[in-house]
Each structure stands twice: as C-alpha cells, then as structure tokens.
Amino acid sequence: MKLHTLLKVLPLIKQPNENPEVIEIVQDNRKVTKGSLFICIKGLTVDGHTFAKEAEEKGAVAIVAEHPVDVTIPVIIVKNTKRAMAILADAFYEQPTKKLHLIGITGTNGKTTTSHLIDQIFRDAGKVTGLIGTMYIKMAEQILDTKNTTPDSMTLQKTFKQMVDLNVDSAIMEVSSHALDQGRVMGCDYDIAVFTNLTQDHLDYHHTMEEYRRAKSLLFSQLGNTYDHNRPKFAVLNTDDPASEKIQKETAAHIISYGIDHETDFYAKNIEISAKGTTFTLKSPEGEHVLHIQLIGKFSIYNVLAAIAAAYVSNIPMEQIIHSIESIKGVAGRFELVHGGQDFPIIVDYSHTPDSLENVLKTIQHFAKKRVFVIVGCGGDRDKTKRPIMAQIACQYASDPIFTSDNPRSEDPVQILKDMEAGVTGKNYQTIVDRREAIFYGIKQAKSGDVVLIAGKGHETYQQIGDQILEFDDRVVALEAVKENG
Q: What is 397-427 written as a DSSP string?
C-alpha cells in the first residue's frame, strides 16, 4: 500500500512529498525490515522514538512519531502514536474485523473458560473459529503463543487478517482491562461483548474499583451507537453482578441478561453440584432444559450461561448449544483434576484473585469429606492489597492453608508471604517459600476423603523468579509428588 493512501485515514495530516510503498507496519524496532512503516511508541520503560534512526538504517521508508526525530525519511507527526497505530493497522489490514463475527469477553474471572466454551460451541456447529486469550492464539487449527491476554492493536489487526485469510468466520477473544484502557482494541468491530463479573484485581494499575469498572465498560460503549438490523450488536451481561447496572447504561447495544440469583433471559435454577459435575435447569427464550455439565461449581454455571447466551444470539440452535456444553470436559488449568492414582482429588486452578479463590474453595466444600488443603501464593509486581485478603480466604475456607510462592518476579518472595500473613495473624497456616516443596508437602499430608487445591497458576508452565523464567507446571509437579508417595 502506498504511504499517501494509508495516511488518508488520519485526519489533519499533511502528506509528505515522498510516497513509498509500505510493505508492513511495525512498532518493534527489532522487526523493522525494508519497506516498513515504523511507529514510535512510548512504553513504560522504552521510548520508540529513540530507535527512529535505527529503523531508517534497517530499511524503514517512513516514521510515525509524536515529535520530530533525526532521520532523512518522511516523518508523520501525530498527537498520539498508539491511537494512530490502531487506525493505520485497521486500514492496512483491510478492516478484517468487519469480515468476522467478533465476540469480546471481559471481566475479572471466567474470561478464559467462557471463551473456550463459546469456541467449542461454534466449532461443533461447523464454524471456523479463531481464539485470542491468556493461553494462546488459535487461528483455525494453528496455535501460537501469546504474551498478553489481549495483544496490541497492530498485532491484533494482523492476527485478524490472518484469520480472514484462513477462512475463519468467527473470532472469540478475551479483552483485559489494561487493553481497554490502553486502546489496544480500538478499531475492533465487535458484534457481541460479554461481561462475566467484577471483583478486586489490578488495583496496582487502576487504583480504584470504579476506575477498574470504567475500563471494563469501554468494551460495551465501543459496540457503537447505531443500529444495523442486519448485523445487530449485543451486550451479554451477568446481572447478578452490580457492575452490570452501570455497564448497560453505557451501551446502545441490545441487552441480553444471564444469572442465577435473579430471573433473567438465560437463567439457572435447581442447581446440584457434585465432584463429578453440575446439574441445573436452564430457562431461556426456548423454554426449560435440564443440563448435565462436566464442569463443577456455581462459577462454572455463570461461564456456561454466558457462553449459551452469546451462542444463541449468534443464531446457533439451542439443541446444538446444549449438546456442545454437555460434552465439554473443561479447560486446562481451570478446576482441572490431576489423576495420578491417588485416592483423593487434586485440583489445579488459575484462581489468583480473592473472588476466584473463594469460589473454588466454596465449590470444593460441596464434596470434600475431610480436610481441604490449599496451596496458594500471590504474584510479585502486582496488586499488593489483595495479598492479605487471599490469605484470609484461604484460612476461612480451607482446613490446611499452605502459603507459598507464585511468580515473585522482581519482588522478594519472603516479603510477599509476609504481606499475606499480615491478614491472618493468629490463624492456622503453613508457610513454605519453595512452591515445589509446598506442593509435595500438601500432597504427602492428604489422605482419602481430603481435597488438595493448587491455586494461582493454572495452565502456566513456568515460574518467574527475578529475571529468570523457570520451567514449572503445577500439574506435572503434583503428579511427581503423587508418584513419590507411592
């Protein structure tokens, strides 16, 4: 695409004299090649403007920046390069989200499970799907690693274009509050936005719960303010969560409600939970159906209801939706049972917020016959205010809490544990800094009738200590502990 053609999407921009061919758009100076348009982004630790000269030397044909830089190639000055990048990426990749049925899911907990449930329903219905989230990026049958729950706008639009090229018709993505606040999803034409819940997390970034809620609500306001009756927009909201009341005021889209505590468009009642699964009666616009799902817990029902609602307004028949939901066994690292021949359940779960930990421990109480062991820590360089709360919940709902390291990152793991312990003075708990040792200890103590929960890391296959990324999978370590105990 010619530079002049591309720049037409930016208002109030004076076209440079030169009009080179733009082969690609990049914001990472390490990825600049001949024909690149390099966008200078100010990051938390690095300012892309300092790499403008290097980009020119590598073959960049033009620079987009917020102030003049010392190069001989054209420099396009904009007020905000992140915003400009979203607009340019959308144009360069030919507005791929307009060619997809796009579903965005936001909320504190449940995004990953809900996205996988929707993905499976769509696949079973014969759709070709794409999935973007915490665990990976999937395009049709291709799976790629991902660094962030929601990539930057450039990576997103490029990914969506690749999906279109692979004949993907439906894309499902997790949308984090950071991504919404930082404008990473600007330009994405969502058809459906799903809200799971709002509980404490990321206050190191957002500072207040109201600001955190505001960031989440951006997904729903970005559904637009007009009505295309051939392509309607839907906001699927968990109306048991008080935040939904404010969110629905911030969107013009059709409101679709789901819940358990209040009768809604998609409503669960007559709930029965066991160690093998969950049974409930679904009330929907199609009437009542009794569902037997292989997922466990009340929080799992919320995820299922959200997925059912999103699929239904996507015109997938209810019979097909129910068939898919009942056949799904679960998502990696989300209440995942680890079987190693032991005579007690070992559960690995991603629960790393107070609410998610409480939900999982309350669910375990439905089937635990004796002691409940919970091995839990808190991540370093993250919201410190939730550490004592996590400890309190562990002590309240488990008979045997074991505090240990999660991903300490740059922080001292001992100090993180002290922050947790500050919330449970005088309570009964164990502290074992080494996570592997803590897992081995908990599993060694457990007997028939007990339950062991390993919380916080879920599907992750690494542990970040300082600047080291070490191989570590809770599920693998748990199996090793079971084997050692014979």
A: H-SEEEE--S--BTS-HHHHHHHHHTT-TTS
